[in-house]
Design brief:
It is a single chain. The protein is of the alpha+beta class. The chain has six helices and 15 strands. The chain folds into two domains: about 160 residues, Ribosomal Protein L22, Chain A, CATH 3.90.470.20; about 80 residues, Ribosomal Protein L22, Chain A. Helix content is about 25%, strand content about 30%. It is globular and about 50 Å long.
């Protein structure tokens, strides 16, 4: 099933501004984070942040990490990877703590067998679900209540967007759709497909154990983002809504949300 195209304008509060959704593509319009924040059951909040923070902010974020997070950070060989992990996890703690009225350092995360993080049950008084993704200098977070969400961001590299890689990781229908595109649209189509597939896998929480060729997403820049089919389950695509996120010209990003419809709000995290 393909979700129908839609045109929607959502207006937030007085200081929050507005954004537009056309064909499930969210405009590059990120509002400054509010002083206080509330998350309604029908909302998804999307946060964008830079992983390149100054030394003062990095020191603050590093102090928030748990022991296991810090050990994981220092295990990175390249300093840039270490710093980006620290920033990503520290900002996650800042964001999630705002919804739960806890200090960021108090938060406890649990992980399923495939590494998907969640707030520990004893602290998750608001039934939050979240997902995060980072690539190059940017990180995205999606936060919801009582519904599953998956998010992915990819730095666009033309040298990576080859048919050989597509044939290895995409479904047959996705490869055919990619081959049908004009040559100048194939890189965009490739990363549309990649980020949309990743967002769905992350929402499922099954990591690389979920077969990539068992589901198909839309590919063409001229089509709305959508989960088109899931092998063996005709009903499942009707349970999800997919969105394309505009995060910058050098990135492709996708969001998928369980049990639509929802209202999306976008925030820019400032250190």
């Amino acid at each position: 099933m393909r979700f129908a195209s839609s045109a929607l304008t959502v207006t937030e509060g007085d200081a929050a501004g507005r954004y537009h959704m056309i064909n499930n593509v969210i405009a590059d319009d990120w509002n400054h984070s509010p002083y206080s924040i509330d998350l309604n059951e029908n909302e998804v909040h999307i946060w964008r942040a830079s992983l390149n923070q100054d030394a003062k902010v990095m020191a603050n974020l590093s102090a928030l990490l748990s022991q296991d997070e810090y050990q994981r950070a220092v295990s990175y060989y390249r300093p840039v990877d270490r710093d980006r992990f620290i920033a990503g996890r520290g900002i996650l703690r800042k964001i999630i703590s705002a919804y739960l009225a806890l200090s960021p350092g108090e938060l406890q995360f649990t992980y399923n067998e495939y590494g998907k993080p969640a707030v520990s049950d004893n602290q998750n008084t608001r039934a939050l679900n979240f997902n995060l993704s980072h690539s190059a200098e940017l990180v995205l977070y999606a936060v919801t209540r009582e519904r599953v969400v998956g998010i992915d961001i990819e730095y666009i590299r033309e040298d990576f967007a080859t048919l050989e890689i597509a044939e290895q990781f995409f479904s047959k229908d996705e490869v055919a759709a990619l081959k049908s595109l004009p040559t100048d649209q194939r890189t965009t189509g490739f990363f549309n497909c990649w980020s949309r597939k990743e967002s769905f896998i992350k929402a499922k929480g099954l990591g690389v154990s979920y077969p990539l060729d068992r589901f198909t997403v839309s590919v063409s820049p001229n089509e709305p983002p959508a989960l088109l089919n899931v092998y063996g389950d005709e009903y499942e695509p009707t349970c999800w809504q997919m969105y394309e996120l505009k995060t910058g010209e050098e990135y492709a990003a996708s969001l998928i949300v369980e049990n639509p419809p929802v209202v999306l709000r976008q925030w820019q995290w400032i250190g």
